[in-house]
Amino acid sequence: MVGLGPRRPPSRKGSMADVPKDLVAEIHKLETLFTVSPEKLKQITEHFVAELAKGLSVEGGSIPMNPTWVMSYPDGYETGTYLALDMGGTNLRVCEITLTDEKSEFDIIQSKYRMPDELKSATSEELWDYIADCLYQFIETHHGDCSNIPELPLGFTFSYPATQNYIDEGILQRWTKGFDIDGVEGENIVPMFEEALARRGVPIKLAALINDTTGTLIASAYTDPDMKMGCIFGTGCNAAYMENCGSIPKIAHLNLPPDLPMAINCEWGAFDNEHKVLPRTAYDVTIDRDSPRPGQQAFEKMIAGLYLGEIFRLVMLDLHDNKEIHIFEGQDVSTLRKAYSLDASFLSFIEEDPFENLQETHDLFSRKLNLTCTRPELELIRRLAELIGTRAARLSACGVAAICKKKGYETCHAGADGSVFNKYPNFKERGAQALREILDWPEKKNRRAEDPVEVLPAEDGSGVGAALIAALTLKRIKEGNLAGILHPENYK
Ligand code: BGC
């Protein structure tokens, strides 16, 4: 089958021979459902390019294409000490970063705090108080008594779609990644955050509000000038790149110089919310329907780590409940019925099972789900994990290719971060193969030759990137270059 990537180690090739015919037929159906052909990838990419432009236009489109007021790359000579707060989908991380006098060098200390799941649907005050508490603890541990120290500048990485008229403002467009907290959507989150800091007595001054993709773009460009975009493939998925103000019709009224750079947080998770091109399956439809924000983040829901395990779980249940083959026949599947009980690491584990008889997968199902799998069922499980992981990697390549096409980049690097990119087996290789198919590159001369567009592991965007953006912002204030920092009426 075309474009599926490595199916299994050669030593296991013969194993499908033992699988009964009806199960093989079911596997073929799944292959048809989850395989994205090169032609489809190209069609998705074409539509993507048009949607990127639409998001920048006055009328707007479903991809928000948010201007971020990050208007330059660092030159490597930024200095100073900054705090960085990263509120991703799963953890909260606080860092203190010192950009040293050595070009592109930095020191970092950091602490991670688990975001309790309940916080995703808590009250707004509970959320901000929890965050303020973590910051308080961090400062107390590293600086001692909070009441005695001067305010530290903070880059806050808030990785959700937000409208920014200024760099220290963020009007939440909508929650993503399963968050569902009332009273925050449509509001500027900065005052809420600052009020919580004041309640707790945390000596911090917010310098910039940042998206993780913008941080990734800036941190990656800090050490590699060929980096032209920052991507996150983690709990959520998204990218940022540098646009020229002259190509952003929706901010034309600000009369900024047309060649002035402006980082755009695409929020491409919202691509194809109208369901025009993405090859959605009934399982994708169910995920969307049962999510806290149906109709939103169509692309993200097929790619991001939060959803991969859930897609897998829904297929397994369907095969148990509705198909003639009835996998796990006669067994109690109640654990499998629990929504979001499997995460992307469950699939990674299955794909990494090195044993011919899939012993580790067998043990995983027994340990986590209380299910005993037959050998043919294990073959189906392995194939399904490969199909879901491969589809995610191939679709994500459409976004990267679309930005390259929009900007006319024939060669460049893209910096990528996130648990799926860093930990999911074969994600990078499958994505690279899809880029080759979309952009029609000739076969590589040798395995180690670089591709024209390489998606590479990024520098730490929400830590170092946030500190750099805080530094660049404070530098602009000093220089009196105030676009996006002061109200436009005050900007000449
Ligand atoms: C958010 C983006 C974020 C991405 C990766 C998405 O759900 O909307 O703002 O960049 O996740 O964290």
From TrEMBL:
Residues 27-222 form the Hexokinase N-terminal domain. The keyword Cell inner membrane does not apply. One of its GO terms (molecular function) is D-glucose binding. Keywords: Allosteric enzyme, ATP-binding, Glycolysis, Kinase, Nucleotide-binding, Transferase. It is an enzyme of class 2 (transferase). One of its GO terms (biological process) is glucose metabolic process. It comes from the Eukaryota. It holds the Pfam family Hexokinase_1. It catalyses: a D-hexose + ATP = a D-hexose 6-phosphate + ADP + H(+); D-fructose + ATP = D-fructose 6-phosphate + ADP + H(+). Pathway: Carbohydrate degradation; glycolysis; D-glyceraldehyde 3-phosphate and glycerone phosphate from D-glucose: step 1/4; Carbohydrate metabolism; hexose metabolism. SUPFAM superfamilies: Actin-like ATPase domain (SSF53067). GO terms for cellular component: cytosol; mitochondrion. Residues 228-472 form the Hexokinase C-terminal domain. Its EC number is 2.7.1.-. Belongs to the hexokinase family. This is Phosphotransferase. The lineage of its organism: Eukaryota, Fungi, Dikarya, Ascomycota, Pezizomycotina.
